[in-house]
Amino acid sequence: MKKLFCLLLSILLFSCNSKEKKTTKDITKDLPKEIRTDLYGSYVGDFTILERDTSKPAKENYINKINIVIKRITSSKVTGQSIVAGNSRPLTGTMTTKGSTVHFILKEPGDDKNDGVFDFEIKNDTLLTGIWVANNPKKEVSKRKFELIKKEFKYDPNVMLPKDGMYIDYENPREEQVTDLEVEEGKEAETYIEAVFRAASESIMTINSSTQKLKESDLKNLKKIDLEILRNTIFARHGLTFKTKTVRQFFDSVEWYIPVSDNVNNELTTTEKENIVLLKRFEKYAEDNYDSFGR
């Protein structure tokens, strides 16, 4: 009886597996054929304002770094993703070919106030150029242009911020009253209000917060802005798209930085997680110096 039961169970399992394999095969067979797979990948560069409503306060950056990812192309449908300024949005649309020109119209879903339509061409398989138009014409920025280069994202824990960069927080100025001490004899000294900014030290270009297990002695003399940049450099190496302009101003112009995701927490190494905890603890008590800088 036991042998008979085992035999029936084996037949049943074999039958189920065969059915499952057949179903999977049929589904694959029914999928539309993919074309122009050579165009798949990330296209990265500046997302620049073309039209802005100047009657409204300027809240949006003139330039953001954008990554347009093309994931799948068939004769009837293209799917992809746009990643910019802390937003990661799915794209769907179509591709048409005329001569050597490949033309795309890809739409964001439309359920977000910042959604719009990308209209672009790809030239020589590597250069993507076009415009984006907001769904809401009353939005502060209703049109942007872009010219993007094809780039492959690869996590590299050893990349550092460029040493020739100026890491000044222009997004959070303070106002200070300044007295002009160089006055002519017999005249009163003039006082005026001047905007001052915080600037990072060279430590952010020498301390690697991804590979180096940080100690309290490494951080105790750093400024608050140093600690913030060291912490966010970890996320930048993993391709996090930053929501705040305060952080984006330090990374958008960096050559190796490619925004690829709005959440990279599962990608962090043990060393990085421990460093983030330590850096955030020091940020609570650290202070900054402010000074005047030209823009």
Automatic annotation (TrEMBL):
Gene3D superfamilies listed in its UniProt record: 1.20.58.1690
YARHG domain: residues covered: 201-284
Superkingdom assignment: Bacteria
UniProt-recorded name of the protein: YARHG domain-containing protein
Organism: Flavobacterium lipolyticum
